[in-house]
Amino acid sequence: MTDAYCSDCKKYTEVVLDHAAGDTVCSECGLVLESHSIDETSEWRTFANESADNDPVRVGGPANPLLTDGGLSTVIAKPNGTTGEFLSSSLGRWQNRGSNPDRGLIQAFKTIATMSDRLGLVATIKDRANEIYKRVEDQKSSRGRNQDALLAACLYIACRQEDKPRTVKEICSVANGATKKEIGRAKEYIVKQLGLENGRSVEMGAIHAADFMRRFCSNIGMNNQAVKAAQEAVQKSEEFDIRRSPISIAATVIYIITHLSDDKKPLRDISVATGVAEGTIKNVYKDLYPHISKIVPSWYAQEEDLKNLSSP
User: Fold this and answer.
1) How are strands ordered across the β-sheet holding 32-34?
2) pLDDT score recorded for residue 145
3) pLDDT average, residue stretch 252-280
4) Which of 39, 159, 180, 243 is deepest in the core (most CB within 10 A)?
5) Cα 250 to chain center, whole Å?
6) 215 or 206, which is more confident?
7) Distance (Å, rounded) from C-alpha 230 to C-alpha 215?
């Protein structure tokens, strides 16, 4: 029971809530204070046919414009032993016999959603990957190709286009066994097909070392001050003509920053956290070393500290 003001009793009294009628009734005089009220709280009744199924969900998924029927098709449930068993089972059999043109797309979208969740990607990237795959599939030229590599490549391109790039190794880790080489080939194939469709080259978005910095720093467990210094250093490194991949530059900057702090990280740990080989980090270090005094922020390390760094 709750309290409410009763106009007849001229005071606050306990009220009774009649959920069936939607009435709020004064417990002392019986006056209906509110009628036909709407219960806005969650409803957890289950409408499942099977008594063992306690899933309260009784609505479908959101509309999907990439599917033929918008994702709003009807599915006949399994019979539950009632009088409608024969009708339900017959409809179910006919439904299973009918060909669903979107069956392959639905399965592909589920795979992309699983990969996106494992990488912690936002919904906009997942939707972009779905759109890319749908455009490639509509051209009917992807038969016989590695499906896992094709889906992984769609996700890779979507990350690039949404300015949230991921490394090929990161994509490969959730690609259901597809190799880097297979994903690379699939990416080139998709870019070529989309280019033929539009009559112009596909915009992939530029990759910068700063795009990977915060995630790499988090993987290796750097403190906030070191992360800030690494971000500033990697931005300054772009002022120099360092002809190396952005991912390798990001890993090498992390190596430099951590070796200027008290919490030094082994080269092997940095290699594992960034996916860049130890030998590659050493080679990029040779290219960055001549500019190290201009790259590392002055507030993070003094000139004497930089001299203590080992020369390549």
Assistant:
1) 2-6, 11-18, 23-26, 32-34
2) 84
3) 90
4) 159
5) 22
6) 215
7) 12
Q: Is 306 helix (H, G, I), strand (E, B) or coil?
A: helix
CA distance 141 to 127: 22
For CA atoms 259, 265, 266, 269, the dihedral sign is negative
Contact yes or no for 151/135 (Cβ under 8 A): no
The answer to whether the CB of 125 falls within 8 A of the CB of 165 is: no
Q: What is the 3-state secondary structure (H, E, C) of 232-293?
A: HHHHHHCCCCCCCCHHHHHHHHHHHHHHCCCCCCCHHHHHHHHCCCHHHHHHHHHHHHHHHH
Angstrom distance (rounded) from CA 264 to CA 19: 65
Helix (H, G, I), strand (E, B) or coil at 46: coil
Listing DSSP states for 53-82 in one string gives ------S-----TTSTTTT----PPPP-SS
Question: Residue 219: exposed, middle, or buried by beta-carbon count in 10 A (0-12, 13-18, 19+)?
Answer: middle
Residues whose CB falls within 8 Å of the CB of residue 55, separated by 6 or more in sequence, listed in order: 46, 48
With cut-offs at 50, 70 and 90, classify the pLDDT of residue 118: very high
* Distance of alpha carbon 121 from alpha carbon 125, whole angstroms: 7
Could you tell me the pTM of the whole model? 0.69
Distance between CA atoms of residues 36 and 56, nearest Å: 25
92, 76 Cβ separation under 8 angstroms: yes
Determine the Cα–Cα distance for residues 55 and 38; give it in Å rounded to an integer.
24
Integer Cα distance of 4 and 26 in angstroms: 8
In the DSSP assignment, the letter for residue 211 is H
Mean pLDDT of 159-172: 90
Residue 69 has pLDDT above 70, yes or no: no
Helix-, strand-, coil-residue percentages of the chain, each rounded to 5:
50, 5, 45
Q: Which is more confidently placed, 197 or 224?
A: 224
